[in-house]
Design a protein that fits this description.
By secondary structure, the protein is mostly beta strands. The protein folds into 2 domains: 119 residues, Immunoglobulin-like; 133 residues, Immunoglobulin-like (Sandwich). The chain has 6 helices and 19 strands.
């Protein structure tokens, strides 16, 4: 059989398309112009494009031994990036929900009021409690109350646990709970970062408000990855800190899908505490915070200057998971 005929038969058997009928769109080249002058600047630094309406400062160590916490589940519009609005499901109308803090051995007396039009619930990762008793679905205009005593120190996630859980988390129902050890940690500059993702459908209505795209979520393909709910919030408004002074970062990864490869450019972590009792990790460059997990990062910045913090999964940093620590002289 002639070689040309063999080639035609093999092409047909393998299903190879004819070059003249290839409809695959050409791949888009990666952008070559950096958005910021600084190395690892995935967003313009210092440009006033986002509202500095959510400080990253950690609340002070809790006083007293009993804490009565009441939250309301309610829908609210949330600005993810300048001019990009999302129909969020929230605790107390903010994304993430309020940062909570208590100490090992304290009693947390919690009440959830459902002011939304669908069932919601609360799951505290710091609690050791029967979920079927405490994490019940709360119907609209109803409430649930339960108490727990945290036994383990760390940075913990809380979130709505109503099915489908991925949708409730992706829509904004999550936050951070800091549990301090009984003996106070050494003094430090303290900040809280909650990483999370947004999966957006097409904008709807005159304000082009976005809602969840379930297929994007299942494909783990977010439009934005953020710290504390807003893309690049702390790049456009860097966080002022003191150089050569201890810094403590409480990092919680709400997900619902992407790991946080947490890294501070120009620094090495002196200590990392992972969720629990025990000796810290020492001298670490980057550490993975899993979905639903948390860690405490301690470091000092060697000199004044700008130090980006990112998820070192740089597709996620490019989508908004980055900020800047602006170190100043003591």
């Amino acid at each position: 059989m002639r070689p040309l005929l063999w080639a035609v038969i093999l092409a047909a058997a393998c299903g190879s398309p004819s070059p003249s009928h290839d409809t695959t769109p050409p791949a888009k080249a990666a952008p070559l112009t950096p958005p910021a002058e600084m190395s690892h600047g995935e967003a313009p630094v210092g440009a006033a494009t986002t509202k500095p309406d959510r400080a990253a400062d950690a609340p002070p160590r809790a006083r007293g031994r009993r804490h009565r916490i009441r939250m309301t589940a309610v829908a609210a519009r949330h600005e993810v990036s300048p001019g990009v609005w999302y129909d969020a499901w929230t605790f107390d109308s903010i994304v993430p929900g309020p940062v909570l803090r208590a100490t090992v051995g304290d009693t947390i007396d919690f009440t959830l009021v459902n002011g939304a039009d669908m069932p919601h619930s609360m799951d505290f990762h710091a609690a050791e409690i029967a979920p079927n008793r405490a994490y019940r679905n709360v119907m609209p205009r109803d409430s649930v109350q339960f108490t727990f005593v945290p036994r383990v120190p760390g940075a913990f996630m809380y979130h709505c646990g109503t099915a489908p859980v991925a949708a409730h988390i992706a829509n904004g129902m999550y936050g951070a709970l800091i549990i301090d050890p009984a003996a106070p940690r050494p003094a430090a500059q303290e900040y809280v970062f909650v990483q999370s993702e947004y999966y957006m459908g097409a904008g709807q209505g005159k304000d082009s408000v976005h809602a969840l795209d379930w297929q994007k979520l299942l494909g783990a393909s977010p439009d934005f990855v953020t710290f504390n709910g807003v893309a690049s919030r702390y790049a456009t408004h860097p966080i002022p800190v003191k150089a050569r002074t201890p810094i403590r970062l409480y990092v919680v990864n709400a997900g619902p899908n992407r790991f946080s490869a947490f890294h501070v450019v120009g620094a090495i972590f002196d200590r990392i505490y992972v969720d629990a009792f025990g000796s810290p990790l020492r001298g670490v460059q980057t550490y993975n915070v899993p979905v639903g997990g948390g860690a405490i990062f301690e470091l000092e910045l060697a000199e004044p200057g700008q130090y980006p913090f990112v998820s070192h999964a740089f597709a996620d940093a490019t989508k908004g998971a980055m900020g800047v620590l602006q170190a100043m002289s003591r």
